[in-house]
């Protein structure tokens, strides 16, 4: 049995007086054994007589909290990975069953017939199996800035874990997230110490829940291709997580929508004055741009490139919108587009500040044929 000791003593003299030791906890963790000890003393007795009775706290299952990732847009034939977060709200360890309660495609051909759920990339399949999450509660007040929290001992001293929590687990305390560094148990005192990797941001009071969360991926191997250009193409998936202890307690994301685009859209940048950037440069009509690692100092000029690549279906009324980044000044008459390598064509600036023609309603490039690459460029200078 798992044991934690909370003692109250009754001293009987001529009348009985009840004395309760310690504050009542807001939440009592599962697997806690509460021991209540009473003492009787009277004249002529050498030492008090004790009587005790124990109760064991069991799991109070609760609906978990399943995140609602925002809808996203994926180019044709690409895979799609959506990251979910599952958090327990129970007072102890529970398993949660993932099920796919809906999967629908619209205006697509060749799309996957279901989504799969993985942890650790695509190595651990969790569809129709369970995710195990632990939970406990604070036993004492812990102030801001501390790394350790005292919790009730769960009676299981076979490993460095408490109520399903162990080192490197991700946990939520109040509104803040933490990661566990280590757990040490002390059966003699009926307590365990959870050590965090980062200090507490808010005070933790007795009974405050400490709940585990885990991340998992919803994975669609291919989103297929758009069947009819100009009509919406998407995949809707509904995901449910239910407590194994009580299957009626669940949370469902009723619809995550993956919009499928018949074009890809990417953004790159280069420092015109001082070449910098990490990774493999992207050659856009003879000029190298980068997706990361570009640095600049005040006064230097940056050139951005927006790249549109169409599939075989092409685009109509393709509107590109962008704004100058913070701390930069748009350089007038520097916005151009290049239609599939045919040469740069100037896009006329707006009549008023910030003059950049891609702001507000954007610029309509018109029809972009299938299987082409169009590039839109503009320049800004870092403020000095």
Going by CATH, what is the homologous superfamily of the largest domain? Answer: Immunoglobulins
How many strands, which pairing sense, and closed or not: the largest β-sheet? Answer: 10 strands, antiparallel
Q: What class would the helix/strand composition place it in?
A: mainly beta
Helix content: under 10%
What's a quick, concise take on this entry?
The protein is built from no helices and 33 strands. With 384 residues, it is an all-beta fold. The strands form 8 sheets. Strands 5, 7, 10, 11, 13, 14, 17, 18, 19 and 20 form a 10-stranded antiparallel β-sheet that branches. Strands 24, 27, 29, 30, 31 and 33 form a 6-stranded antiparallel β-sheet that branches. A 5-stranded mixed β-sheet has the order 6-23-22-8-12, with no helix packed on it.
Question: Could you characterize the architecture of this molecule?
Answer:
The chain has 384 residues and is an all-beta fold. It has three domains: 9-56, no CATH class; 59-261, Immunoglobulin-like; 263-382, no CATH class. It is 0% helix and 47% strand. It is built from no helices and 33 strands. It has strands at residues 9-12, 16-19, 33-40, 49-56, 65-66, 72-75, 80-87, 94-106, 108-109, 116-119, 124-125, 130-133, 135-137, 148-152, 161-162, 165-166, 170-173, 176-186, 191-196, 209-220, 225-226, 234-243, 250-261, 263-271, 282-284, 287-289, 301-310, 319-320, 328-330, 336-339, 344-346, 363-364, 373-382. Strands 5, 7, 10, 11, 13, 14, 17, 18, 19 and 20 form a ten-stranded antiparallel β-sheet that branches. A hairpin with an 8-residue loop joins strand 3 and strand 4 (49-56). Residues 1-25 have low confidence and may be disordered.
């Amino acid at each position: 049995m798992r044991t934690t000791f909370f003692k109250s003593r009754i001293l009987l003299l001529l009348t009985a007086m009840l004395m309760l030791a310690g504050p009542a906890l807001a939440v009592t963790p599962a697997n806690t054994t509460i021991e209540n000890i009473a003492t009787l003393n009277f004249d002529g007795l050498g030492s008090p007589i004790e009587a005790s009775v124990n109760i064991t706290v069991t799991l109070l299952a609760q609906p978990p909290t399943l995140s609602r990732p925002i809808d996203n847009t994926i180019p044709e034939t690409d895979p799609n990975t959506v990251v979910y977060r599952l958090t327990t709200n129970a007072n102890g360890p529970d398993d949660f069953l993932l099920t796919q309660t809906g999967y629908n495609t619209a205006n697509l051909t060749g799309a996957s017939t279901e989504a799969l759920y993985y942890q650790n990339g695509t190595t651990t399949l969790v569809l129709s199996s369970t995710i195990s999450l632990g939970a406990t509660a604070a036993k004492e007040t812990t102030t801001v800035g501390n790394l350790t929290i005292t919790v009730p001992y769960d009676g299981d001293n076979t490993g460095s874990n408490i109520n399903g929590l162990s080192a490197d687990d991700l946990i939520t305390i109040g509104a803040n997230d933490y990661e566990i560094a280590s757990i040490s148990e002390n059966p003699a005192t009926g307590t365990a110490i959870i050590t965090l990797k980062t200090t507490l941001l808010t005070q933790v009071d007795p009974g405050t829940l400490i709940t585990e969360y885990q991340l998992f991926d919803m994975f669609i191997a291919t989103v297929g291709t758009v069947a009819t250009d100009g009509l919406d193409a998407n995949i809707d998936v509904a995901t449910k997580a239910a407590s194994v202890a009580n299957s009626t307690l669940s949370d469902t994301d009723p619809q995550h929508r993956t919009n499928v685009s018949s074009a890809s859209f990417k953004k790159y940048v280069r420092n015109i004055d001082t070449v910098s950037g990490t990774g493999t440069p992207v050659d856009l009509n003879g000029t190298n741009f980068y997706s990361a690692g570009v640095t600049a100092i005040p006064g230097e000029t940056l050139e951005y490139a927006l790249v549109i690549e169409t599939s075989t279906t092409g685009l109509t009324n393709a509107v590109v919108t962008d704004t100058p980044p913070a701390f930069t000044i748009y350089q007038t008459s520097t916005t151009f587009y290049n239609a599939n390598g045919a040469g740069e064509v100037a896009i006329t600036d707006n009549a008023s500040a910030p003059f950049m023609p891609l702001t507000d309603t954007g610029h309509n490039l018109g029809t972009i044929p299938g299987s082409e690459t169009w590039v839109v460029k503009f320049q800004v200078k870092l403020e000095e």
